[in-house]
Amino acid sequence: MIPDDEFIKNPSVPGPTAMEVRCLIMCLAEPGKNDVAVDVGCGTGGVTLELAGRVRRVYAIDRNPEAISTTEMNLQRHGLGDNVTLMEGDAPEVLGEIPDIDIAVVGGSGGELQQILRIIKDKLKPGGRIIVTAILLETKFEAMECLRDLGFDVNITELNIARGRALDRGTMMVSRNPVALIYTGVSHENKD
Amino acid sequence: MIPDDEFIKNPSVPGPTAMEVRCLIMCLAEPGKNDVAVDVGCGTGGVTLELAGRVRRVYAIDRNPEAISTTEMNLQRHGLGDNVTLMEGDAPEVLGEIPDIDIAVVGGSGGELQQILRIIKDKLKPGGRIIVTAILLETKFEAMECLRDLGFDVNITELNIARGRALDRGTMMVSRNPVALIYTGVSHENKD
Amino acid sequence: MIPDDEFIKNPSVPGPTAMEVRCLIMCLAEPGKNDVAVDVGCGTGGVTLELAGRVRRVYAIDRNPEAISTTEMNLQRHGLGDNVTLMEGDAPEVLGEIPDIDIAVVGGSGGELQQILRIIKDKLKPGGRIIVTAILLETKFEAMECLRDLGFDVNITELNIARGRALDRGTMMVSRNPVALIYTGVSHENKD
Amino acid sequence: MIPDDEFIKNPSVPGPTAMEVRCLIMCLAEPGKNDVAVDVGCGTGGVTLELAGRVRRVYAIDRNPEAISTTEMNLQRHGLGDNVTLMEGDAPEVLGEIPDIDIAVVGGSGGELQQILRIIKDKLKPGGRIIVTAILLETKFEAMECLRDLGFDVNITELNIARGRALDRGTMMVSRNPVALIYTGVSHENKD
């Protein structure tokens, strides 16, 4: 896993997702060498870079041009990117241009989560996995509701992470903000 | 409970202790109108002010002169302080000058936690309560060990608090750093 | 604060609310000696008992008859209850029978949270406080949405509490399930 | 990552370590195909199985014979184990029999953590990684102190995990007990 402090950051771009969270996303995504993945709301590129080292092709989408350029710089810095397609634009439109996918990670949705998840469902190959990362209360609820409405078994795990910081007088535990991962098991429709 | 943002702050003084933590400290301290309390490491004055409104007398100790003056300003701002004695100096020395106590809250110890707790034990009236707030891993361990060595039943509760922050796109949960409260039940020695 | 283990429990009744959470509820409720309070979904009676010792009158509502009888037993056990009216029934109906209130704590809503909060708003005196405790993701979202729609400034605080348990080999930290408190500031409508 | 509920469990054996924690352990351990790893206090076998699928050889140690047999059953169940050496006995003794290692995961220490870490340090190849999982307050402190005394840069990360449980009325968040991972960066001695 790439350490958080080895990413180039841009104050107008969120991320990178904390190492511990990227780690769990990769566990849940079960990336395979022939998989096709999409990272919706790629931000700083944290998830895109992890996927790039593990799957055949990654589509990284963000409507913020600075997110696209920051992700690009981070890919270069870590010698990754040959298998990454960077796509600037609104996810619901841009998603129409990509092929079917095995893995979808949704880290940012610009208020269009339901539409995004509906398109992702249509493009998801049998056995595919969807993972939504949520820091907003509303996103946790909407992602659960929407994925359930789309026929998936849905799980949610919330992570509260605190890291030790060495001070002169001892080790202070410093909290990260809580992050929830909402992720799919098998789709009930796909089961038929 | 006084809201966190109604305290005057000083960048070189820690605190105030989060409202939710002060709230639990007050529950555990069970302040009575005739009680005498000490706040060791009073910092910004968060705990001192809460005690001041509930007990007969509070001794607020800090070796940082800016903490003493910040606590003083906060007492004035909230119309409290008539029953508060501010004492600048190292706790092990200054504690020698105060009378017996019903409540001791130790929020800062300057590396002298064991010595402080030993003196507090000697000054603690029967049925008195000791509460140590700890943000350092080492303090959690030392407070537990030391209070147990002094013959107390010791409890520890750790609080991870996240508060919602309203953003345009929703409610982001923002974590406070974890705080542990180590507090005494009945002293085994006192039982005899 | 009454310790958790001093409540009579009934396996078919939830509660009592953890001491640390009751403590924060009391801080947010700011109970006054002349206040009238309602506890919707009183369960084991944890919140009802705390309110009973602090306000003029408490209305404790639950549609589960065993919750009502458990709360009654706990009131008796702690010498409280003279100022408590126990009301068995569905909250939206029963709430119609009580006078105006200063404090409303909603710990259980039986799927009727929106209706309950609308009635509570109508009965809330100027400066009154509403506190919803939520352990379900959906309740957190709905309470926020609904109170906001009713014109209130709404806050949410989530508590993750771990308590030490003494084992032979050391102190194991044991987590309580996360609880969120959704609570009102000033109502925008009342401001006018 | 193997789901928690796909492990055979034994009431007298702790574990398996939660999937999310195993996931982070694997991230920190950075297992390579030619690596040699030891799992001290293998319990149910959660970490041993994950290592078995990723490294050349795993030594799984536990002084509880039922832990050894439970780990063995889990290895068989998941078609793993060809590269695992199960060793029943006290870790300080048994560790003397294994070759040098790239990865050490210490999940249980039977009160002999310092001795175990000292031996592990002697057997650790350059660039090797040590990860201690701690659920006891005392273990967190001791692991930090001891690894620091042995000359390592030490990090600590604490995980509070809550998983959604689907109920009729909504999604209840259910907490796991907090787990800390204490892990090494570069050893200062090795730097010379």
Description:
The structure is a homotetramer of 192-residue chains. With 192 residues, chain A is of the alpha/beta class. The first copy, chain A, has helices spanning 19-29, 46-52, 65-77, 91-94, 113-123, 137-149, 188-191, and strands at 36-40, 57-62, 84-88, 101-106, 124-134, 152-167, 170-175, 179-187. Chain A has an 8-stranded mixed beta sheet, sandwiched between helices. In chain A, helix 1 (19-29) packs across helix 2 and helix 5 (113-123) packs parallel to helix 6. Chains in contact: A-B, A-C, A-D, B-C, B-D, C-D. The A-C interface holds A 137-138, 140-141, 144, 156, 158, 160, 178 and C 137-138, 140-141, 144, 156, 158, 160, 178. Strand 6 (152-167) of chain B pairs antiparallel with strand 6 (152-167) of chain C.
User: What oligomeric arrangement do these chains adopt?
Assistant: homotetramer
Number of helices of chain A: 7
Widest beta sheet: strand line-up of chain A: 3-2-1-4-5-8-6-7
Largest interface: A-B, 20 and 20 residues
How many extended strands of chain A?
8
Biggest beta sheet summary of chain A = 8 strands, mixed
- Helix share, percent of chain A: 25-40%
Which sequence of SSEs, written as H and E, runs from N to C of chain A? HEHEHEHEHEHEEEH
* Category by helix and strand content of chain A: alpha/beta
Uncertain parts of chain A: 188-192
Nearest-angstrom radius of gyration of chain A? 16 Å
Would you tell me the overall average pLDDT of chain A? Answer: 95
Terminal CA distance of chain A reads 37 Å
Shape descriptor of chain A: globular
Hey, roughly how much beta strand do the residues of chain A contain? Answer: 25-35%
